[in-house]
Structures are given as structure tokens and as C-alpha cells.
Amino acid sequence: MTSLLIFLVIALIGVAVWQLTKIFDLTQVGTSKDDSGVANDNDNKVNGYLMFAFVGFIYIFTIYSFVAWGDLILGTPASAHGPEVDSLMEISMALIFFVQTITQFLLHYFTFKYAGKEGQKALYFADNHKLEAVWTIIPVIVLSGLIMYGLYTWNDIMYVDEDEDVMYVELYAKQFAWEARYAGEDNTLGKANVRLIEGVNTLGVDLEDPASNDDKAVSELHIPIGKKVVFKMRSQDVLHSAYMPHFRAQMNCVPGMVTQFAFVPTVTTVEMRLDEKIVAKVNKINKIRAAKSIKLVAEGKEALDSYTFDYLLLCNKICGASHYNMQMKIVVDTPEDFKKWLAEKPTVTQVWKDANAPAPVEVKAAPLEVAVDTTMVLAQVIK
Q1: Of 9, 34, 64, 370, which has fewest CB within 10 angstroms of its CB?
Q2: Does the residue 359 lie in any domain?
């Protein structure tokens, strides 16, 4: 309803402006007016000042954005490759802002300085090889350097040595939730297929595959600090994207194929909660929640719970109506805490057996027949 009212108000304002322009045109009837459609010196001068005002607005808004929303930028990376990704981003953004600042200023300055004047003719250059070489070679060198640096960083992140001690975890995406499966003692994930999804076997694990016997499925992701985790990703339905922002990790989950991403977590959840930037963000969020809670309580509703930081696995593709709610909590533990947590989880085979075990048959005990010796009873009565 609110959206409809906003639309109607905007439509009415548009009609009102259109009517005002018609009235203004009627008031100009009979007056001397230049209808040639050719800009005069005054028009060019006004447009030049407007161009300067526009470039000023760009610079002011850019500076304001850094000041007002700079704290929203992700802080300390929680993976070994995170600093490399941040460095690549910082270099790219610095170059973009440097080039943008110079080119935008020159573009708007020349528009003002060389504005058209009556009787003035523009000087035509057929070509300028030196100038063309400069604006072609320099961008090629800069972009090639960025691309090579990016490819080197990407290959370094994606490379997994076959002899390296890693842990395999499967991330399974579906509308609108995540599930995870850990390889067991053999560190090998069993086969899986969406056609095998049935009952509690929500991942479609092939229970006849020996490698699946010790796999464990969970709804909350735990990973140990300091150990490389190789994520094997699948999708049940549509295209999803596994996005773990604090680990600087993202990979698409494509139906019908398995994708992969690996990283080494370097900061536990407990340690990240003590990070200065995270503490500041949590305090800011809780202030907003406290203010909203006052209004909710006044309306007779429940107050909002305090926010506590947690790593999250998000979907970075618009995969449907509840896309925003597709989240999974990630906990980075010490190796000891991780082993203890994982040991408490049942295997997918055990879960399947428990769910499909035959119900115990209730056996009713037959009533006991008590034999009474009537002779003894009669003797007791005579006594």
C-alpha cells in the first residue's frame, strides 16, 4: 500500500510539473524568443558552470562516502590469502580513483574553457600519433600489470598440493538453505547424487559407497584454525554462490557439477569478536537495535535480541524469494575444540539406520494365573 501511495504522489507531481511548463509556454506567447534551437554564448557559459558544479558534486560525494560509510568496509581478513585479496583491491581502487580524479577534472575543465563562442571555429585534428600512443600504451601496461597480479593471486589461492594435509568439506546449496558434509577418518567424501535424496538423506549421499560410511552431515559449519579446508560445492536446484566475506572467499555452486575453493582460516571466532573494528560494528548495531526495541516494547511487542558477531556463509546470487535468508553460521575453532565437536556428530549412515529402523514391537504380558490350594484354605478356616 505504501509503495502504491508513493507511486501516485510521484505521478501527480509529474503531472503538476508538466502543467506548469505548459502555463509558462503560454505566458511567453508574443514575446521575443530565440527558437532556433542553437546554443548561444550565454547557454554555453551556463552549461560550463553546470559542468563544474557536477564535477564538484562528484568529488564532495566521494569524500563524504568515505567519511560516512568507511566503517562498513570489511576489516581484518580471517584467511591466509585474505591480505593478498585486500592488497589487490586497494591497488585497483587507488588506480581507479587516481585516473578518475584527473580525467573527470580535465573533461569538465575543458568543457568550460573551450565552450563555444559566436564566430569562433574549432581547430580540427585529423590525428595525433604521439597522443594516441600515450593514451593507448599506458592503460595497456597498467591493466596488464593488474591482470597478471590478479591471475597470480588467484592461482596461488586455488592451488591445492596433492601431498598437502587438507580437510575436505562439502557445501550443499538449495533453496533456501545450506548443508555441509565432512569427510570422515578416510578424508574422502562419498559419492552423492540428487536422485538419491530420500527422507533424512537430504544430501543424496550414496550409502552403498564405502567412502560414505564415515561422512557426517551438519547444519552448522565448524572449521579448525590453521588447517587448509577444501570445499567441494554442489547445488540441488538453481545457481547459488557460496560467499564467506570475512574469509575473502566466493565460488559459484552450479547444478550438475562440483566446484571447489580452499583456504586456511587464521582467526578463531573468539579472537575475531575481540577485534577492534568488529567490536565497534557490534556496538553500533546494538545501539540501533536498542532504539528499535524501545519502539517495539511501546507497541507491546518483544524487544530485539542483542547482536553477537559470527562468521557467515551467504548466498551471493539472487536465487529466489528467500535468497536473503540463505545463511549458515561458521565457527572457527581451535583444533582440539573442532575434533571434540565433530566426534559428537553421527555419521550419515547411522542417521539413516536410526531413521529407518523398524519400530519396536510392544509385547503385552499374559495375565498370571494364581493357583489356590482350597484344602489349605479350608483347614485354616476350621482352625
Answers
A1: 370
A2: no
Which H or E run contains 57? helix 41-69
Q: What is the C-alpha to C-alpha distance for residues 289 and 304, in angstroms, rounded to an integer?
A: 6
**Element counts in the chain: helices (H) and strands (E):** 9, 10
What is the number of domains present in the chain?
1
**Which CATH number do you get for residue 349?**
2.60.40.420
Domain containing 189 equals: 166-272+308-354
Cell of 371: 493357583
Please check whether residue 315 lies inside any domain of the structure. Answer: yes
Does the N-terminal peptide bond of residue 176 adopt cis geometry, omega within 30 degrees of 0? yes
Higher pLDDT, 366 or 228: 228
127-162 pLDDT, tens per residue? 888 888 988 999 999 999 999 999 998 898 888 887
d(CA 235, CA 88): 30
Q: Could you report the per-residue pLDDT of 225-266, keeping only the tens digit for each?
A: 999 999 999 999 999 999 999 999 999 999 999 999 999 999
Name the more confident of 269 and 16.
269
Which of 183, 207, 179 is CA-nearest to residue 193? Answer: 207
Residue 249 lies in a domain: yes
Q: Which position has the grid cell 533453496?
A: 175
Residue 51 is assigned to a structural domain of this protein:
no
Predicted pLDDT at 31? 58
Instruction: Give, as one character, the DSSP assignment of residue 38.
Output: -
The rounded distance, in Å, linking the Cα atoms of 56 and 136 is 28
The answer, yes or no, to whether residue 23 has pLDDT greater than 80, is no
For residue 320, give the DSSP letter. Answer: S
- For residues 253 and 179, is the Cβ–Cβ distance under 8 A? no
